[in-house]
Design goal:
alpha/beta, 12 helices, two-stranded antiparallel sheet, 7-stranded mixed β-sheet, 308 residues
């Protein structure tokens, strides 16, 4: 089948309603063979999202409004986003400067990764059954990026103090925007730190981290959309485990006695298990999908250090 080239001038003249542009955008996204790895599941989902947000409408706008006719200026706003999505392969989150995590809205730009971790489900469930929520007083979101995991933890544990740590000052600038956006400055603190290097004497009941974990081969094979994200937040050596090894070696020093470590390693799960076959990683199953996330207790981490 011959691919159609997006005719933006024709779209302006011939399309009238939100539904028209949603359908047209989805068709053009299929033609362009875009990648949907940044929070959207299909061309239609992405097109609907971009059309609504281009008009400053909420994502749950009832479809009774979708037959509304658009002004010329509104059509231009929609098409400018669709054009950039196709021609520049920019993920939708960067076009709108908006990401979602655990049902919460965050400011997002190219200084940080687009939120998409299955850890959101753990946060919403308050990391049960591995902790007693009422006993959690201190949480560290390591390699925080936009701060979405840690700020979501602040909602889930309203009486806990939460630290957001990242090597990148650019990422922390975004995290600070989100701390302010969620009015969380009294509960959440941003710390510039290369993993645990600047954590000091702090100790935590939960350390949760979505560190860089993409191996070299996967970096090379990624779609164009991923190359808009900061490589510092993705790449972690030839096997994707450089950061994870350091975290495993150091995390126990920063956990309280009953504390837990939760780490996402994504596709590097197999390499991790192969390298440390005797470590009792508890791989977490998610009701909404996703994998590559493990949990270890402080005691298990101490045993890891002894045996390795």
């Amino acid at each position: 089948m011959t691919k159609q080239i997006a005719d933006y001038d024709a779209a302006i003249k011939e399309l009238s309603t939100l539904t028209d542009f949603m359908r047209w955008g989805a068709s053009r996204f299929v033609d362009a063979e875009l990648s949907y790895s940044h929070g959207m599941s299909s061309p239609l989902d992405e097109s609907v999202y971009l059309v609504l947000r281009a008009l400053n409408l909420p994502v749950d706008t009832p479809n009774v409004y979708w037959q509304s006719n658009l002004t010329a200026a509104e059509k231009e706003s929609i098409l400018s986003l669709i054009k950039r999505r196709i021609e520049e392969r920019v993920p939708a989150a960067y076009l709108i400067k908006e990401g979602w995590f655990a049902g919460l809205q965050f400011f997002i730009d190219e200084r940080v990764l687009v939120p998409r971790s299955p850890i959101a489900e753990l946060v919403e469930n308050q990391f049960q059954p591995w902790v007693m929520p009422d006993e959690v007083e201190n949480i560290l979101d390591l390699c925080t990026g936009s701060g979405c995991i840690g700020i979501a933890c602040a909602y889930a544990f309203p009486y806990a103090e939460v630290d957001l740590a990242d090597l990148s000052e650019d990422a922390l600038d975004v995290a600070r925007i989100n701390i302010e956006k969620h009015d969380a400055s009294e509960q959440v603190t941003a710390i510039q730190s290369d993993l645990f290097s600047n954590i000091g004497e702090r100790r935590y009941d939960i350390i949760v981290t979505n560190p860089p974990y993409v191996d070299k081969d996967d970096i090379d094979d990624m779609s164009d959309e991923f190359h808009h994200e900061p490589e510092l937040g993705l790449s972690s050596g030839n096997d994707g485990l450089d950061c994870t090894r350091q975290i495993l070696a150091q995390a126990s020093e920063y956990l309280n006695d009953e504390g837990i470590l939760v780490v996402e390693v994504g596709n590097s799960q197999h390499a991790l298990v192969q390298e440390f076959p005797h470590v009792p990683f508890q791989w977490i199953e998610f009701e909404r999908g996703g994998d590559g996330v493990f949990m270890l207790t402080k005691k298990q981490l101490q045993e890891f250090i002894t045996n390795n």
